[in-house]
Amino acid sequence: MLSLSSMSESVRSGLSCFLSEQALDNEERQQRSDQLAEMQRLREVRAAAQLKNLEDFLKMNAVSLRECVSYTTGMRYRNLGKSGLRVSCLGLEIMTLAYENGINLFDTAEVYAAGKRSTLVITTKIFWGGNITVILMVFALYNAGLRASLDRLQLEYVDVVFANRPDPNTPMEETVRAMTHVINQGMAMYWGTSRWSSMEIMEAYSVARQFNLIPPICEQAEYHMFQREKVEVQLPELFHKIGVGAMTWSPLACGIISGKYDSGVPPYSRASLKGYQWMKDKILSEEGRRQQAKLKELQAIAERLGCTLPQLAIAWCLRNEGVSSVLLGASSTDQLMENLAAIQVLPKLSSSIVHEMDSILGNKPYSKKDYRS
């Protein structure tokens, strides 16, 4: 039988161990609490720094923070192909309002206002036709074309320079060498293609690899509800094989998907202007009337989702994760703000909604390889 003194000693020992464990637990909890507090403090400091940068930029452009709605647009960012260049999923011509709302990709502009160049992604396109007398001047043409563009933009370099339409009279090697040259000269960081076929892009990539040159990172292609084959079938294969991304333009099909042509061609619309007879003929054709009938059905879906038809059309383009950025062509601040709200519609495009839209459109392309988009 244990004595009273030994029992007392055992109790004291057990109590001491218990208190020691409690002290250790309290210390660990305090350390975790301190770590969480430090993480929260760092988040607040980072947020304050970002806010200060935004306020400085807005002040520079005479815009108040209250007038800026960048926090409500929910702008998303994606890598341009498999390159390290990260761009906003919506791009636009240079406008301060666009930058305030999170857009960092600006495509082909003539002027450039003061701003934070390091946070912007500026692209431009060089075009030269098939004049056989200038084939031997490829380097000079690219240099002169890009330098003139940079001078107009008042920039030292662009992030991406696009070769706009291939020249069938110029060997692919010369084109790739010329684009590599302007990058090596520091006038551009990357180069891409615009309106090139998949075979031409693949040839450019092969030439670049063969001669240790710089391959293209992106193709600019038309993409909307009535133009799907290239972006949904051909470009995904190039992305998986060689990492070429997709930057798309004309999400509203030059305004045809805006809904303004559902009852014909209204006065002062784009299709009514001189030089756009082709567009008017397209709208009034049998195929154009079928498209407008489909748009009326899609309008009903837009109303169910609480958005406009243009917002639905832009969100539909964005739902394709193979698209790095959708280039917008807004002609007013009201149009820009309406288009930006398409990002808020994107989460509403469930698989059932997309399937319903595909059923209405009836033009979903299929490829031998099923790449998820």
TrEMBL record:
Residue ranges crossing the lipid bilayer per the database entry: none
GO terms for MF: oxidoreductase activity; potassium channel regulator activity; transmembrane transporter binding; voltage-gated potassium channel activity
Record-level GO cellular component terms: cytoplasm; juxtaparanode region of axon; voltage-gated potassium channel complex
Membrane topology (UniProt): Peripheral membrane protein
InterPro entries named among the record's database cross-references: K_chnl_volt-dep_bsu_KCNAB (IPR005983), K_chnl_volt-dep_bsu_KCNAB-rel (IPR005399), K_chnl_volt-dep_bsu_KCNAB1 (IPR005400), NAD(P)_OxRdtase_dom_sf (IPR036812), NADP_OxRdtase_dom (IPR023210)
Compartment(s) where it occurs, according to its Swiss-Prot or TrEMBL record: Cell membrane; Cytoplasm
Annotated keywords: Cell membrane, Cytoplasm, Ion transport, Membrane, NADP, Oxidoreductase, Potassium, Potassium transport, Transport
Alphabetical GO biological process terms: regulation of action potential; regulation of potassium ion transmembrane transport
Domain called NADP-dependent oxidoreductase: residue spans: 92-360
Domain of life: Eukaryota
Xref: SUPFAM superfamilies: NAD(P)-linked oxidoreductase
Catalysis performed (reactions): a secondary alcohol + NADP(+) = a ketone + NADPH + H(+); a primary alcohol + NADP(+) = an aldehyde + NADPH + H(+)
Keyword Membrane: yes
The keyword Membrane is assigned to this record: yes
Coiled coil: none
Family as reported in the entry's similarity comment: Belongs to the shaker potassium channel beta subunit family.
Name of the protein in its database record: Voltage-gated potassium channel subunit beta-1
Native organism: Oncorhynchus mykiss (Rainbow trout)
Organism phylogeny: Eukaryota, Metazoa, Chordata, Craniata, Vertebrata
